[in-house]
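Usage

Read records sequentially. Each one opens with the input sequence:
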Amino acid sequence: MSPDLDAAMGRALELAAAAEGWGDTPIGAVVLGPDGTVLAEAANEREKRSDPTAHAEVRALRAAAQAHGDGWRLSGCTLVVTLEPCTMCAGASVLSRVDHIVFGAEDPKAGAAGSLWDVVRDRRLNHRPQVTGGVRAEECGALLRAFFRRQRGL
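and closes with the structure output:
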């Protein structure tokens, strides 16, 4: 794994931990530009904003599109996220034309980058980003498991 991806996942983990502070599921996302620099970053804010679409990935992709300077197209960019994207976020990644999706923990209940569905590699779509899963998966998964244990009072 490249140092850029490891550092980006470290930052995504920091963002995820911050989301827990305002009651959101701890998921963080970072978008790297073609040169590896951070274009945008975000954490889940569904609870904070009362917005079902305020997933970390969607928020980061929106901010990256503003920073990238090629309209809505994020060609050459990499989305780094602590949890495998859901169908909404996988679809947003495809539609934004990111080249690479890197995720930490798999999501067998809602993952759409290979676990439950494989939206990002569906041959019927006109864009298929490269996918790398399992980056710092244990750290990402541990953060989520601890959050849900606390939510359930376990």
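Summary fields computed downstream for this record:
- The mean pLDDT is 95.
- Residues 22 and 48 are 7 Å apart (CA to CA).
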